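Q: Could you fold this chain for me?
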Amino acid sequence: MATATRHYTPAEAAALSGLAVKAVHNAIDKRIVETDARPSPKRARRSLSVEDVLRLKLWYEVGPILSQERRQRLFAEIEQHPTAKRVKADALVIVDVEEARKQIAERVRALEAAETVVVKSRAILGGEPVFKDTRIPVRLIAAMLEDGASETEILDGYPKLEPRHLALARIWTAAHPRRGRPKTLADRSAKVRSVSRAPLKADSGTTRSRRGAA
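A: Sure. Below is the predicted structure, expressed as structure tokens.
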């Protein structure tokens, strides 16, 4: 792959492999994949190569049919035959490594494309990530898709967006999850227009009893 030299954060690796971030961290903790600890002023950063992403993807996808020992043998075979399209896991299981690499490569290209159209500036919505040349929050679009909004509805509501922006919003948000507590609708630039309060109606029986007591 052309981007083989790039390393990814656990969140990015999760977006590329289709796994949950928790599963990626679990794999790192169990040393299913080895990571580079890159020191920073605050903490060491876990870093994974594209080959690590492939290993993660295959580890969990063949898990239901292969034991841990057989999976390890599979990875040894892949390392010995890095250009092989299909690798024999055992006498009965053949893994389509080429297809797995193809899926990851497509996601890598999508993530790279997303990173070119998503920008952040304190002058725009206080630094909230938006699509380039717009004030449309990327996470808002991803949240709308997650909540069931159709692509047609979103594109009608945001004429500056194209269909590709919606796909890019999904993978960018997956690769860059928000830290801290989830934001409210107001935080996402979705405002509650009005709140109405109605007095509770007293139970008719209770009303009669009160009148009788009076």
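A (continued): The CA atoms of residues 141 and 166 lie 7 Å apart.
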